[in-house]
Amino acid sequence: MPKAAPQPQTQPPVVKTATANPANSAQSGDDTSYVIKVGVNEVNLVFTVTDNNGRFVRDLKQQDFQLLDDRMPPEKVLRFTQQTDMPLRVGLLIDTSSSVHSRFDFEQRSAIDFLQQVLRRGKDEAFVMGFDSQPDITQPFTANLDKLAAGINGMKSNGGTALYDAIYKACRDQMLPVQANQALRKTIVLLSDGHDNQSHFPTSQEAIRECQRAETSVYTISTNVSPTKDSGDDVLAHISEETGGRTFVPRKEEDVAHAFYLISDELRSQYALEYRPADFKTNGDFRPIWLAAADRKYHVRARKGYYAPRE
């Protein structure tokens, strides 16, 4: 299990302003803030900030944040962008096991509404995966909403639950191969009760590591219909926390649609930070990230780290 970055004993330095290297950028119409040619030793970190009431904070500056990569300040910050409107690559993972049967039809409709709301023509793409005892890609990456809706509607609820296999394979086979000369936000939205009884992996940790390798955040929506949280909800919360996503535990059907709405809003309320880490080595090791707002009344949600490439 990768080690989490400890809280520094001394106050880390404020992120310093730096101009992006023209060699690492390319123009594309009006979307110059999106197009970044990322070198092997450059990190793109997408994150959101909320206040104590859970409201998004969209007007902070670069100097309002503190950053440690592998417990060290970055060598150089190349770019900082407020309220970015990045292209999205979204994976919709829907638990189709018999344990989620009672709300399955409603969740399918809510998922379709979410994709119709969040995907923009010519900019965003999504894929759809259903999973019971094994994962099944019902629609690979596409921008075609009709195909995505067909992929969701074609799912049937039955069987056991291979939750960790589904997350692992979605990141390995769909998210990790995504390469582009532009900053993308890669996100999985997962509907499940959080219980696993069929995966080849004994815990969620390998699935989390694959999400970190693929630089993919996971937003989870619990399908647990009991009046209280259970161990499955804790699993979903852990996956979201480690990957920089967020977890929702709806208790009523209409709350599922609201959770999708909040995820859509969050994906459009973000910051992007591109930096060059200090003492970077292409050794395949996990590098923990510690990112915080200088004003502690603000809460930063970002992935906990990443894996350096291996030579």
Describe it.
This protein has 311 residues and is an alpha/beta fold. The protein folds into two domains: 22-85 and 269-307, Immunoglobulin-like, CATH 2.60.40; 88-267, Rossmann fold (3-Layer(aba) Sandwich), CATH 3.40.50.410. The protein is 24% helix and 27% strand. It has six helices and 13 strands. The protein has helices at residues 104-118, 145-153, 163-175, 205-213, 231-243, 253-267, and strands spanning 43-50, 65-69, 76-84, 88-95, 125-131, 135-142, 185-192, 216-222, 247-248, 270-276, 286-293, 299-301, 305-307. The strands form three sheets. A six-stranded mixed beta sheet has the order 6-5-4-7-8-9, sandwiched between helices. It has a four-stranded antiparallel beta sheet with strand order 3-10-1-12, with no helix packed on it. It has a three-stranded antiparallel beta sheet with strand order 2-11-13. Helix 1 runs antiparallel to helix 2. The longest helix is centred in the middle third of the chain and has 15 residues, at 104-118. The protein is globular and about 50 Å long. The relative contact order is 0.22. Mean pLDDT is 84; it is low at 1-38.
Domain count: the total is: 2
Q: Quickly give the structural class.
A: alpha/beta
Give the CATH superfamily of the largest domain. Answer: von Willebrand factor, type A domain
- Beta-strand fraction estimate: 25-35%
Assign the CATH topology of the largest domain.
Rossmann fold
Largest sheet: 6 strands, mixed
Distance between the termini: 22 Å
Radius of gyration: 19 Å
Biggest sheet, strands in spatial order?
6-5-4-7-8-9
Which H/E pattern describes the elements?
Answer: EEEEHEEHHEHEHEHEEEE
What's the total number of strands? 13
Instruction: Give the averaged pLDDT, no decimals.
Output: 84
Shape: globular
CATH architecture classification of the largest domain? 3-Layer(aba) Sandwich
Helicity, as a percent range: 10-25%
Q: Tally the helices: what do you get?
A: 6
Uncertain spans, ≥5 residues at pLDDT below 50?
Answer: 1-38
CATH class of the largest domain: Alpha Beta
